[in-house]
Write a structure and sequence with these properties.
Blueprint (H helix, E strand, L loop, with lengths): L2 E4 L7 E3 L2 E2 L7 E10 L2 H7 L9 E2 L3 E9 L11 E4 L25 H4 L6 E2 L2 E2 L1 E2 L9 E5 L3 E3 L6 H4 L5 H12 L7 E5 L3 H12 L4 E5 L3 H9 L4 E3 L13 E6 L4 H10 E9 L13 H7 L2 E4 L7 H13 L9 E6 L3 H9 L5 E5 L1
Parallel strand pairs: 5-10, 13-14, 13-16, 14-15, 16-17, 17-18, 19-20
Antiparallel strand pairs: 1-2, 1-5, 3-8, 4-6, 4-11, 4-20, 6-7, 7-12, 8-9
The structure holds cyclohexylformamide and zinc ion (2 copies).
């Protein structure tokens, strides 16, 4: 098959046409990938951030159709359209049995899982990035890592349900648990931030305010229901004179997390969904942690149980309350993935999809 291989950190993606992967084993399925999103995390991983080892096939936001099923793979059928999850729940670990499947610890850790599909270019083994490797024509993944989607949802939009949309909508609905009438600040309007804006609107947030340096993204936030959108340097009046009930940081830098903290009222919630750096420290005084009574909430995969979240998001899309087309800036063939990355990094882009 064809795939985009990252041979070493910081190297451009290399299109290889002689990539092989094994047949699906017990509890696994083979998926033909129809669309994959270029998530910021893929760009970070390709640069060696988060300790990503190479060679590796990246891509974790993907949708396609099941074309082969291994033994004991459950109910799924050949021909079923699916979106991939990059945290397939084991169903048995400490976290899964408590309903926190998004932080499942039961499967092998990333480095081990990456060996899972036995990807090779010639005789050279290549890792399966994030256990998915969707920058490829096919993927072998656990059956627990594919969620059915309907036939009328285009693959280029469905793929977004694999990362950006559950991450952003889930930050509002699951992590922040935004209540009707609450005021919500969303910092950063990429695909995750614009999904958080939509999640806050879906939850009934009364005043959703978006912040982004890029005018085009601010315009999209307004189209998606934000009451106002501002550049980072703008002064934003605190709602009710006291601050926001909720702030969602979809950037992942100490400065934006601290800004979100300062923007919420006493007793408010700050949700950190942006994937930041391990050495980027944010500081709070012990006094303010106690005195402000704010809740600092981490949000991994939007605290989403994907088996429940994907069908819910599909229904929100069907009823017109979740706009997926607004999140797609471009669709590019996989063999032009380096152009897709450049486009994704352009200031006005939201999400660029590749079609393998
Ligand atoms: C990522 C964030 C960094 C750790 C792995 C998951 N989220 C999605 O892109
Ligand atoms: Zn992602
Ligand atoms: Zn588990």
């Amino acid at each position: 098959m064809r795939a985009a291989v990252t041979w070493e950190p910081n190297a451009p993606f290399s299109i290889e046409d002689d990539v092989v992967l094994r047949r699906p084993g017990a509890g696994e399925v083979l998926v033909r990938i129809h669309a994959a999103g270029v998530c910021q995390t893929d760009i970070s991983l390709s640069r060696g951030h988060f300790g990503q080892a190479t060679p590796v096939i990246l891509g974790h936001e993907g949708a396609g159709e099941v074309v082969e099923i291994g033994p004991e793979a459950g109910e799924i059928e050949v021909g079923q359209r699916v979106v991939l999850s990059w945290v397939p729940p084991c169903g048995r670990c400490y976290f899964c049995v408590r309903g926190q499947t998004f932080i499942c610890s039961g499967r092998k850790r990333a480095g081990e899982l990456e060996a899972g599909a036995d990807l090779r270019v010639g005789d050279r083994p290549v890792r399966q990035g994030m256990g998915t490797a969707t920058f490829a024509q096919h993927a072998v993944v656990p059956a627990a890592g594919v969620i059915p989607i309907p036939e009328d949802l285009p693959f280029e939009q469905a793929a977004l349900l694999g990362c950006a949309v559950p991450t952003g909508v889930g930050a509002a609905l699951n992590s922040a648990r935004v209540q009707p009438g609450e005021t919500v600040l969303v910092v950063g309007c990429g695909a995750v931030g614009l999904s958080a804006v939509q999640g806050a609107v879906i939850a009934g947030g009364s005043t959703v305010v978006a912040i982004d340096p890029q005018p085009g993204r601010r315009k999209r936030a307004l189209e998606l229901g934000a009451a106002s959108a501002h550049a980072p340097e703008d002064h934003v009046a605190p709602p009710g004179g006291v601050g926001f009930d909720v702030a969602i940081d979809a950037v992942g830098r100490s400065a934006t997390v601290r800004g979100a903290w300062d923007a919420v009222r006493r007793g408010g919630r700050v949700v950190v969904v942006g994937a930041g750096k391990a050495d980027d420290l944010v500081s709070f005084s012990v006094l303010e942690l106690f005195h402000e009574e704010k809740r600092l909430v981490g949000s991994f995969y939007g605290s989403s149980d994907m088996r429940f979240e994907v069908p819910r998001l599909v229904e929100l899309w069907r009823s017109g309350r979740l706009d997926l087309t607004a999140l797609v800036s471009d669709v590019v063939p996989l063999d032009r993935i380096n152009e897709a990355v450049d486009r994704q990094l352009a200031a006005d882009a939201v999400r660029v999809m590749v079609t393998p």
